[in-house]
Amino acid sequence: MTDTATPDIIYTKVDEAPQLASASLLPIIQSFAAAAGVSVGVKDISLAGRIIAAFPENLTAAQRQEDHLAELGELVKQPTANVIKLPNISASVPQLVAAVKELQAKGYAIPDYPADPSTDAEKAIRARFDAIKGSAVNPVLREGNSDRRAAVAVKNYAKANPHSMGAWAKDSKTVVSTMSANDFFSNEKSATLSADQAGAARIELVAADGSITVLKDGVKYTAGTVVDATFMSARALDAFLAEQVAATKAAGTLFSIHLKATMMKVSDPIIFGHAVKVFLQPVFDKYGDKLAAAGVNPNSGLGALLAQVAEMDGGAEIQAAIDAVMADRPPMYMVNSDKGITNLHVPSDVIIDASMPALIRAGGKGWGPDGKAADTNCVIPDSSYAPVYDESVKYFKETGALDPRTAGTVQNVGLMAQKAEEYGSHPTTFEVPHAGTVRIVLANGDILHEHSVEAGDIWRSASTKQAPIEDWVQLAISRQKAEGCQAIFWLDESRAHDAELLKYVRPILAKAGVADKFQIMTPRAATRLSLETIRAGKDSIAITGNVLRDYLTDLFPILELGTSAKMLSIVKLMQGGGMFETGAGGSAPKHVQQLAEENHLRWDSLGEFCALGESLKFLAETKANDKARILGIAVDRATQGVLDNNKSPAPKVGQTDNRASHYYFALYWAQALASQNEDAALTAHFAPIAKALEENEDTILAEIKAAEGSPADLGGYFLTDAQKTDSVMRPSATMRRILG
C-alpha cells in the first residue's frame, strides 16, 4: 500500500478511526484522481508502522518496512510536497506497550518496552521507543506555520444546524486552578542568540560540590534563535496539588487535572504522576517502598497502579488502603463513569485541548462517578496558558453560553515550524536527579540561562528559530489582508519568551506598514475580546505560538462548530510545498470500539474532504494541472452537498455512518464533475459514474448496512488485517464495480 516513486499527493496511513475511514475513502479518491492524471500514494506514519520501522534487525524481510516518517520529513522540505495528513496516535506509554504486545502476538519480534532500563542494551531500546512515543510525528512534518479556519460551507452549516450547548449558571462552582509561583511561566528565562553565540551548546547540572553532569550535549543553535529555559518546582507542585484536592472536597465539586501528556511527552506525564501520588498520598506514605519495589510508576496512571497492586503479595491490603483514601477524597471527573475510568487512570485519556473545550461547551460540567454532570475544579498546574480557560469560564458565567447560530469565527495563524517553542522541547526536558544549578553553556562559553533546582524538579528548554518566526508574522499579515478582520497577536510582554518574539513582530509589522491592523494582547485579554467579538457575529484572527495554536484550534471550533475535526488546516511549508491536515479531532478510539461491537463507524470525514479539495487546488497551481483544479472545485461542491443533504455520519446503528457518507460524497463529487463544462473529457468520464451511483443508491446503501448491528472483525487494533479491514469498510460490491 506504499509507493517507491513520489506520487503527486501523499495520503498518510495513521491509526484508529481516521485510518479505518481511509480504507473506505482513499479508494474513492484514487479512482477519481486517476481521471485527472493525479497519483495518490500512501506513507505509513501509524504507531504500529513506526514501531516496525524502528526495529528492522528483529524482523523478517517480509515484515520490515522503511521509515516513512523520516521520508516524509525530507519530502516536506521540497517545494513540490503535497501531503494530506490525518490525525495519528500521540502514544502514551500504555498505548505504546499495548501496540508492542499486539505486534508480538502477530509474530513481530519487537522487544518489550523497558520501563526502567538498566543495561546499555535496554537504554538503547528505550531510546528508540522514546523517539516514537508522544507527539513524534508532527514536529517532523511541520516544516511550516499553521493556517487554520472553518471552511465557509462548514461554518454556514453550523449556523443553520446549531449543535447543543450546555447552560451556564452565574453561580457555577466550576473554576480553573493554576499555580501562582514556581511553575514554568514564573521561572522562564529567554534570550535571542547572536552570531557569536551560535553553534553547539550543552546543558549541564552543577552540584553543590562543583561536579558536573552533562544532561545534553551538542544542542545546535543558529543565530537569531530564541532560546528559553525554565523549571517547575516539584515541591511547589505537590503543595499546589494537595491544596486543590482539599479545596475541591470543600467546594463539593469534581477534581480534574488537564495536561497534554502526548505533545509534552516528558514533562506532563511526570506532572500527572505527581497528581496520582498526591491524590493517594496516605497510600504512598505507608506503602511507597513496596509499590516502588513492585515497579509501580505513578506516571503511568492509576489504572496501571491498580493492575500491579492486584498482582502483588499483600496487594489486598494495599487495595483496601486505596479504597479508603478514595472514599475520603473528592469525586473525580470521569473518562468513563460506567467502567469506573477516572481522570487519573491513564495520562493520555484527558488531553487539555479536548477536555477543557468540551467542559466549557457543556456549561462547565464534567461527568462524575455517579454518571451525572457536576461542577468541576479544572486543575491546570502551569499558568502559562491556564488564563485562556480561566477567562473563558469567567466570561460564560457572566454572559451565558455562546449561540452557534449567530457566532462569528476565530481563525488561527500558528507559529509551529521547525519544532517551535515547547512542543519541540522533549529532548531538552529533564527530571532533575539531584539539587544544583542547571545551565545552558553556549558554543562560545557564554552561560545563557541558569536555574537553581532541587531533586525532582522538571527543567526544560525550548527554542524557536528566526526564519519560522519571520514566516509566521508574514503569514499573519497575509491572512489579515485576505480577511480584513480583527487580528490579535496573543503575546504577553511580561512573559520572557513573548518579549523576545515581540522584538521580531513589531519591526516586521512596522516595515510592512500594517502595525495599525494588529493588536498585541495577553492571552487572557485576547480570550475575552475574541469571545466578545464572535458573540457579536464578527470574526477574529488569533496569531499565536505553538501551544496556543493547538489549544485554540480546539476551543473555538468546539464552541462554534461542535467539533474541531471539521477545520480547514493548511500548513504553508517554508520551502513552498503544502501540507493539508484533516482537523484536530484526534483519532477517536471510542469510534473504533463501536465499529468493532456494532459495525457502525460514526467518524466524520469532513476534515478529509476539506483537505482534499485544498490539496488538489494546490497541485493544480504547482504542477499546472487544470484537471486537478476542476477536481478540487468539485470536491468543494460535494462537501457542500454532504452538508446540505444531511449525509454526515450519525451516532447510532441504522443511521448514516462513515461508509454511507462516503457513498454520498462520491455521488455528489461525480455529479459535480459530470455537470461542469470546463473539461469535456472529465464530463464524459464521470457522467456514467454519476448515473450509475445515483441509480444504484438503494442497492449500495443496503449492502453497506447489511452487516450493521453485528461485531466487525478487523483482525487487530493498532495493526489491522488489510483484507478484513477492506471487507468491513468497503462492503458494497456494487460501488466497487462502478468505481473500478
Strand content: 15-25%
Classify the helix fraction into a percent range: 40-55%
End-to-end separation in angstroms reads: 17 Å
Stretches where pLDDT is under 50 for at least 5 consecutive residues are none
- Class based on secondary structure composition and strand pairing: alpha/beta
What would you report as the Rg, rounded to the nearest angstrom? 26 Å
Q: What is the spatial order of strands in the main beta sheet?
A: 2-1-3-24-23-4-15-22-20-21
What is the average per-residue confidence, as pLDDT, rounded to a whole number? 95
The largest sheet, given as strand count, sense and whether it forms a barrel, is: 10 strands, mixed
Q: Care to count the β-strands?
A: 24
Concise summary:
With 740 residues, this protein is α/β, with parallel strands linked by helices. The chain contains 26 helices and 24 strands.
Write a structural description:
By secondary structure, the protein is an alpha/beta fold. The protein has 26 helices and 24 strands. It has a domain at 9-143 and 575-735. The strands form five sheets. It has a ten-stranded mixed β-sheet, with helices on both faces. Strands 5, 10, 13 and 14 form a four-stranded mixed β-sheet that branches. Strand 7 and strand 8 form a beta hairpin. The model has no long low-confidence stretch (mean pLDDT 95).
